[in-house]
Specification:
The protein has a nine-stranded mixed sheet, sandwiched between helices. It has a single domain, classed as Rossmann fold (3-Layer(aba) Sandwich). It contains ten helices and nine strands. The longest helix is centred in the middle third of the chain and has 21 residues.
Amino acid sequence: MSEHGAFGGYADWPEYVSGRPRVAGRLGALLGVPRPGTPAPVAEGTWDADGVTTTRLTWDAGFGPRQSAFLLHPSDADPATLPGVLALHSHGGIKSVGAARMVDVPGLPQHVLAYRRDAEGGACVANDLARDGLTVLAPDAFCWGSRRFDLGITDAAAYDAAAGDHEHLVAKACSLLDTTLAGMVAHDDLLALDVLAASCAPGSLGVLGFSGGGGRAAALTALDDRIGTVVVVGMMTTMAALWPDHVGHSWLLHARGVDLPGLLTSRPDADVLVGYGRRDHLFSPAGMAAADALLAEAFAAGPGRYTGVFVDAGHAFTPELQDAARAHLRARAALTATTATPSRKVST
């Protein structure tokens, strides 16, 4: 551990959480999501590669280390004229790196590159979305990357090994502070959504995530109606089906009263795509099938839409699922571009 103990870099966390009201609504109260402040992003560097301009942004998240994100867009376009998508990184057992796993950046540790190859088809998902003509923001989340705890470990692989055990301690601390790990992550994601909304064209926003990022995307959709379209990959099941063989998930999923399908059905106006791997070892086939049926029924009458895509794969954001996700976001972006009106934020 660091010289600051188990919570290095976060000495101000308790005071911040105790001094903030919770985000309005049942989910905000259930997760204990502190109402975020207003971010003031600062550009830390910009580069162009393969038709994509990437800018690293940072801002004060209100407590702890500054939050970092990557803003990407086609090099020949003004990001303020393009529809916006928030790209949310997975858990993956990798906390030394957050959003960078989704972005074409140099210097990533070998185990992170191996994860990208095995779990995400070797793709830089955020760059691919930008090449599709979107303004993309890929932020680090609480506990990951720029927002990781200082454990006094410099080697990335060793840090990630230690961070797995440390997550249990963070979850216990969250309980003491009347919040949850999912609630603190949602706090950071809401900040990032504000940054995206100020960086892209007016109108509804998109959000995409794989695995833990998919859970984050579903929660954010339930919390903020600026999101009009959502892609959740590798993170959908009925909760009852997790018992007894699939309870070993991270604390991101284990928040009392949270129902994964219910996060999406709470937004009947949203355009939803969920990607499933038939051989995903994290969920039972019955649980995934039941969630798919529940979502299909809930969205059948509109006004939103649900699409479920099953592929013959394990727990992975396969090229086939990436193609489906990108097509889904492109289609919604094209519709949004013709009907754009200023969006509003309700969960404050």
